[in-house]
Write a structure and sequence with these properties.
By secondary structure, the protein is α/β, with parallel strands linked by helices. It has a single domain, classed as Cytidine Deaminase, domain 2. Helices cover 41% and strands 21% of the residues. It has six helices and eight strands, in the order E-E-H-E-E-H-E-H-E-H-E-H-E-H. The chain has a six-stranded mixed β-sheet. A two-stranded parallel sheet has the order 2-8. Helix 3 links the parallel strand 5 (84-92) and strand 6. Helix 3 packs parallel to helix 4 and helix 4 crosses helix 6 (177-201). The longest helix has 25 residues, at 177-201. Keywords: Hydrolase, Metal-binding. One of its GO terms (biological process) is cytidine to uridine editing. InterPro entries: APOBEC/CMP_deaminase_Zn-bd, APOBEC_Cyt_Deaminase, Cytidine_deaminase-like. GO terms for molecular function: cytidine deaminase activity; RNA binding; zinc ion binding. This is Cytidine deaminase 5.
Length: 209
């Protein structure tokens, strides 16, 4: 798997790709692929646990990045048992299909095996608006060991420091990151909390999204 062109283990993402793919725009034209920067860190030293990090790109029309990463993590945990704290930085939130696959996988991974996962995404994928939003709501309560949120300035700085070949370069959109992230957080809040109630009440969702 490490040699797959869609998977880069222990490699940093190049700066130009990060700058283009992870900008948290509301309308992100020409960004048709999902990038996931991942870090699977042992929560304690010793034993057979070993860190796994890098990035994954989806294979269009074949396999989404989340599904590739899920399989890779499963193999890693089988070969390197231990308890891990995992972080994903995603250019897009999961689609409806990926959310449906993530839900049972996360329940097993987090509740039964004791790991944790923090998922950050730059933009909300809603090509299938109702299905994709329903998928995110399903993930919300999957486990107390799971958190998801929008990539903001702090997460961008983490990526630049740890996972991107930044070479002291400055993102053209760094100063607007937090304001754009705030808009995306409001949209996510609407999807996860407000719109669930709006749908039940029959109120038109376009007023809130």
């Amino acid at each position: 798997m490490a040699g797959d062109e869609n998977v880069r283990v222990s490699e940093k993402l190049d700066f130009d790709t990060f700058e283009f793919q992870f900008e948290n725009l509301h309308y992100a034209t020409e960004r048709h692929r999902t990038y996931v920067i991942f870090d699977v860190k042992p929560q304690s030293a010793g034993g057979r646990s070993r860190r796994l990090w890098g990035y994954i790109i989806n294979n269009p029309n074949v396999c989404h990045a989340e599904l590739i990463l899920m399989s890779m993590i499963d193999r890693h945990l089988e070969s390197n048992p231990g308890v891990y704290a995992m972080t994903w930085y995603m250019s897009w939130s999961p689609c409806a299909n990926c959310s449906s696959k993530l839900n049972p996988w996360l329940k097993n991974l987090l509740e039964e095996q004791g790991h944790t996962l923090m998922m950050h995404f730059s933009r909300i994928y809603d090509r299938d608006r109702e299905g994709d939003h329903r998928g995110l709501r399903g993930l919300k309560h999957v486990s107390n060991s799971f958190r998801m949120g929008v990539v903001g300035r702090a997460e961008v700085k983490e990526c630049l420091a740890e996972y991107v070949e930044a070479s002291r370069r400055t993102l053209t959109w760094l100063d607007t990151t937090e304001s754009m992230a705030a808009k995306m957080r409001r949209k996510l809040f609407c999807i996860l909390v407000r719109c669930a109630g709006m749908r039940e009440s029959g109120m038109p969702l376009h007023l809130f999204t």
